[in-house]
C-alpha cells in the first residue's frame, strides 16, 4: 500500500501535543519556541540548535512526496523518454462523416508517399488524414455501450465480407506450418499470402456492384497488405491500419454506410481479429515495429480503442476489472478490450505488470471514457504520426495525398 503523506491537520495536532509536554533538552541545547525554528531545526535568532523537532516538510518542499501519485497524473503513462505533453495536450480526435465519391470514377493504383516527418504533417493536416482518423472515431462511437453479440444491421455486403474472412481462416487449415528451426516466421505463411494475392480481386468482386468493379485496382492493395508482410513474415499496427483504410475506401465508394458501422466493428473487425490471431499463432508472425514491453500490444491497437468504447458507462466493469480472471473468462467473448487482455495473458508468461506495464498502468485510470480518449490520442501519435509505420501507407484517388 502506498504511504500517504501526513496531512496538515495531523501536523498541527502533533505540534500542540509537543507544546503541552515538551521534551527536556540537553544542557547544551538552546531553548527556543516553535515559532522561532526553521525547517533545519535551528533558532532564527541565534542560529543555535533547538529542542523542537522541525515540522514535516510541506509537499511543495519535496514535490512530489515519496510514493505519492498525484490525482491529476496522466491518464495513460507513456514509454520512457517520450514527450508526454504532446499527447496529453492534444485534442481528442472527433468523428467525421466519410465523403462519398461520385462518377466519374478515377480509381488508380495507390502508391507510397510518406518519407519524412514533413510528409506526416502534410497528411495529418490534409482532409484525407482528418477524414480517415474521423472514420476510426466514428467506428469507435458506433460500438459504444454494445456487446459483440448485440443485434445490429447487417447488409448483404457485410455478410459477404465476413464470408471472405471465413474463407481466409479456412486457408490456414489447408496450409499447415512447416517444421523449421526458426522461432518466428514460418515459411508456410508465404504460401497462404500468395494465395491471398492471387485471389484478392475475385474476392472483391463478390460484393462490389457492377458500376464499381473498376475500384479493385485501388482497394485490392489495401486489402492484401492488411494481413502482414510475406517477405518479412511479420505483422503490426501498420497492417491493421491498412485494414481500416480498406474499410474506409469501401465507405468512400458507398459500399459501407453509416448504419453499417456497428456491424463493421462487431462482425467484420471481430472476424478480422480472430483471423489475425490464428495467423500469428499458427505461422508465428514476428511483431512488426513492436515497442517491446512498453508497447500497448505486440500486434494490435484498434481493438483496444473499440473495446474501451464498448465499456464506457458500464455499471460494473471498470478498467481495473482486467485483473479479475473470472471477468476475463466470462466476458472476453463479448468485449474486445477484455478479449485482448485475455489473449495477452495467454501468450505471455510472467507477471502482467512486467510483460505489459502500459496495459497495467491503464487499469488504474478511473473510467473507460478517459481510457478511450487517451487511446485515440495515442493511436494518432504512436501509429498515424510515425514514419516507420506510415512510410508503407498507400495513397490513391480515394485516400488522396
TrEMBL record:
Q: Please give the superkingdom of this protein's source.
A: Eukaryota
Q: Does the keyword Isomerase apply?
A: yes
Query: Gene3D superfamilies of this UniProt entry?
Result: 1.20.120.1150
Query: Which reaction(s) does its UniProt entry say it catalyses?
Result: [protein]-peptidylproline (omega=180) = [protein]-peptidylproline (omega=0)
Report the top EC class in one word. isomerase
The record, for Pfam families, names: PTPA (PF03095)
Region called Disordered, residue ranges: 1-33
Record-level Gene Ontology MF annotations: peptidyl-prolyl cis-trans isomerase activity; protein tyrosine phosphatase activator activity
Which GO terms fall under biological process for this protein? mitotic spindle organization
Localization (cell): Cytoplasm
List the EC numbers from the record.
Answer: 5.2.1.8
Q: Which InterPro entries match?
A: Phstyr_phstse_ac, PTPA_C_lid, PTPA_sf
Give the UniProt keywords, A-Z: Cytoplasm, Isomerase, Rotamase
One cellular component term (GO) for this entry is: cytoplasm
Q: What is its main location?
A: cytoplasm
What the protein does?
A: PPIases accelerate the folding of proteins. It catalyzes the cis-trans isomerization of proline imidic peptide bonds in oligopeptides.
**PANTHER family membership:** SERINE/THREONINE-PROTEIN PHOSPHATASE 2A REGULATORY SUBUNIT B, SERINE_THREONINE-PROTEIN PHOSPHATASE 2A ACTIVATOR
To which protein family does this belong? Belongs to the PTPA-type PPIase family.
**Protein name in UniProt:** Serine/threonine-protein phosphatase 2A activator
Amino acid at each position: 500500500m502506498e504511504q500517504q503523506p501526513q496531512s496538515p491537520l495531523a501536523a498541527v495536532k502533533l505540534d500542540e501535543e509537543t507544546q503541552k509536554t515538551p521534551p527536556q533538552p540537553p544542557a547544551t541545547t538552546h531553548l527556543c519556541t516553535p515559532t522561532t525554528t526553521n525547517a533545519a531545526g535551528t533558532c532564527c535568532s541565534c542560529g543555535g540548535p533547538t529542542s523542537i523537532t522541525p515540522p514535516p516538510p510541506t509537499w511543495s518542499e519535496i514535490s512530489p512526496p515519496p510514493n505519492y501519485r498525484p490525482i491529476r497524473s496522466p491518464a495513460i503513462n507513456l514509454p520512457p523518454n517520450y514527450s508526454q505533453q504532446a499527447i496529453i495536450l492534444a485534442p481528442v480526435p472527433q468523428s467525421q462523416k466519410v465523403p462519398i465519391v461520385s462518377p466519374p470514377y478515377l480509381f488508380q493504383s495507390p502508391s507510397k508517399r510518406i518519407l519524412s516527418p514533413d510528409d506526416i504533417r502534410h497528411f495529418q493536416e490534409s482532409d484525407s488524414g482528418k477524414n480517415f482518423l474521423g472514420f476510426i472515431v466514428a467506428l469507435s462511437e458506433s460500438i459504444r455501450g454494445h456487446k459483440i453479440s448485440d443485434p445490429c444491421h447487417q447488409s448483404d455486403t457485410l455478410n459477404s465480407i465476413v464470408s471472405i474472412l471465413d474463407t481466409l481462416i479456412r486457408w490456414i487449415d489447408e496450409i499447415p506450418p512447416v517444421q523449421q528451426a526458426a522461432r518466428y516466421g514460418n515459411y508456410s505463411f508465404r504460401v497462404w499470402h500468395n494465395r491471398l494475392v492471387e485471389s484478392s480481386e475475385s474476392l472483391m468482386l463478390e460484393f462490389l456492384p457492377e458500376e464499381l468493379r473498376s475500384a479493385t485496382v485501388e482497394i485490392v492493395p489495401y486489402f492484401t497488405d492488411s494481413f502482414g508482410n510475406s517477405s518479412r513474415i511479420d505483422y503490426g499496427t501498420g497492417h491493421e491500419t491498412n485494414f481500416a483504410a480498406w474499410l474506409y475506401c469501401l465507405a468512400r465508394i458507398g459500399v459501407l454506410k453509416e448504419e453499417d458501422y456497428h456491424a463493421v466493428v462487431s462482425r467484420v473487425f471481430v472476424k478480422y481479429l480472430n483471423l489475425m490471431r490464428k495467423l500469428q499463432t499458427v505461422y508465428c508472425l514476428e511483431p512488426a515495429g513492436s515497442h517491446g514491453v512498453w508497447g500497448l500490444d505486440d500486434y494490435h491497437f484498434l481493438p483496444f480503442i473499440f473495446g474501451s468504447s464498448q465499456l464506457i458507462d458500464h455499471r460494473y466493469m471498470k478498467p481495473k476489472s482486467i485483473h479479475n480472471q473470472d471477468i476475463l473468462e466470462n466476458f472476453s467473448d463479448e468485449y474486445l478490450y477484455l478479449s485482448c487482455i485475455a489473449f495477452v495473458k495467454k501468450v505471455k508468461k510472467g507477471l502482467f505488470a512486467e510483460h505489459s506495464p502500459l496495459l497495467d498502468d491503464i487499469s488504474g485510470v478511473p473510467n473507460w471514457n478517459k481510457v478511450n480518449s487517451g487511446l485515440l490520442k495515442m493511436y494518432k501519435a504512436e501509429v498515424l504520426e510515425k514514419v516507420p509505420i506510415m512510410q508503407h501507407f498507400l495513397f490513391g484517388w480515394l485516400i488522396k495525398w
